[in-house]
Structure formats: structure tokens, C-alpha cells
Design a protein that fits this description.
By secondary structure, the protein is α+β, with helices and mostly antiparallel strands. It folds into two domains: 89 residues, Roll (DNA Polymerase III, Chain A, domain 2), CATH 3.10.150.10; 113 residues, Roll (DNA Polymerase III, Chain A, domain 2), CATH 3.10.150.10. It contains three helices and 15 strands. The strands form three sheets. Strands 1-2-3-15-14-13-7-11 form an eight-stranded antiparallel beta sheet. Strand 9 and strand 10 form a beta hairpin. It is elongated.
Length: 210
């Protein structure tokens, strides 16, 4: 739980060191004052499956070591991870000053096409930006090279940055709106990605050398 400009909110955060996702929602009924908890990744996967299959509200109950999720016809109980979650606010690059806006479906298609050439180990692709133009490229000693070009909304100086294409697809495929916004700084700094139709969610993606 925390406070922002809109009042008290609940934040759900996940990170693996290479990428981060954060969603915030109004505090649900009965949840005010609930402590921060860390839920294992496997349990989150099972909870997601149940949410997809079951309609209606979910009741959440906590003890010092466990959390219970009660659905209409199922109950899932998980142990909590005893530890300290990373200070995620420190890695969210709110100060990035370059803005790229893309059509989500076009961008996902271009990343998917170019990534077929990238090596299985690194999955690296390069984004090259100039005014109104984005070029995505990937090279591989075995498969050659691939290139896709998109018209985009970008009006800052030239910039080149590399990303793991799988991570980039994972993030952009979670965006449900028509447009995605990237806030960038330089080729060595993390990118902030947002759904332009849903300000409650944001993503951070670390760059990689290409």
C-alpha cells in the first residue's frame, strides 16, 4: 500500500533484474493497512490461471507466513517468501526525456519478424531512432540480418538502443491499448514503457549491447 496524487493505492510489482512490471489500483475493500508481501512466482502463475477461469470477486486472507486466495469454487494457499523485495522505485526511470510512441500491433509484428534472425542465446535486436522513423535490426553469423522500418512519433535526437527481443515482446504484448509509449534516455539506460490507454501500468526494460 502507498499514497500517490490520487490517494491510497495498492501496487503489484514483479521483477527479474532484467525487466520490471508495476500495476497500481485503488485499494480494495478491506485491504487498507495490509502489509507488503512477496508471493512465489509459481503461485502467481496458478492464481492467474484461476482468475482467467473463474468469474466474480477473489477474497485474499493473510497470516504471517501464508496467503490464501478464495475463488467461487476454488481455494489456493501459498507460502510467502521471507525476504525484502528490491527497492523498485529506484530503478523506474521517470526522468527519461526522450519519447517514442508506436502503434502496438505494428511494433509487435516488426519485433517478431526481426527477432527470428537474432541468436537464440542473446535474442538481441537494435532500435535506431531519428525524427519520425524507427529501424529495427538484428544480425546473426548463421542466419544473416533482418531489418524492419516503421513510421513513429519521435521528435528527439538520434538514438540507438538494444533490447532482448523476447523481453520486449513480453512487455508490449501485455499492452491492451492501440499505442505504446517508450520513455528513453540513452543507449545504456533502462527504458520506461507504458500503455497510452492505461496509466495504471508501467514497465521497465534494461538495455543490452548489440
Amino acid at each position: 500500500m502507498c499514497d500517490d496524487d490520487s490517494g491510497s493505492v495498492m501496487r503489484i510489482v514483479a521483477t527479474d533484474g532484467h525487466r520490471l512490471a508495476r500495476v497500481q489500483i485503488p485499494v480494495p475493500d478491506g485491504a487498507m493497512g495490509m502489509p507488503g508481501i512477496i508471493i512465489p512466482r509459481k503461485a502467481i502463475g496458478e492464481i492467474y490461471k484461476l482468475i482467467e477461469e473463474v468469474e466474480g470477486d477473489v477474497e485474499v486472507a493473510l497470516s504471517e507466513t501464508k496467503v490464501r486466495f478464495s475463488f467461487e469454487n476454488a481455494i489456493l494457499t501459498s507460502k510467502l517468501i521471507d525476504g525484502t523485495f528490491p527497492d523498485y522505485d529506484r530503478v523506474i526511470p521517470f526522468g527519461n526525456d526522450k519519447t517514442l510512441e508506436v502503434k502496438r500491433t505494428e511494433f509487435v509484428k516488426a519485433v517478431d519478424l526481426v527477432s527470428t534472425i537474432s541468436t537464440e542465446k542473446s535474442r538481441a535486436i537494435k532500435l535506431s531512432l531519428e525524427d519520425g522513423n524507427l529501424i529495427l535490426t538484428a544480425t546473426s553469423p548463421e542466419a544473416g540480418s533482418a531489418r524492419e522500418e516503421l513510421d513513429v512519433d519521435y521528435n528527439d535526437g538520434p538514438l540507438e538502443i538494444g533490447f532482448n527481443s523476447k523481453y520486449l515482446l513480453d512487455i508490449t504484448q501485455q499492452i491492451e491499448g492501440h499505442d505504446a509509449k517508450f520513455k528513453l534516455s540513452d543507449g545504456a539506460s533502462p527504458a520506461l514503457v507504458q500503455d497510452m490507454g492505461d496509466p495504471s501500468a508501467l514497465y521497465v526494460l534494461m538495455p543490452m549491447r548489440v
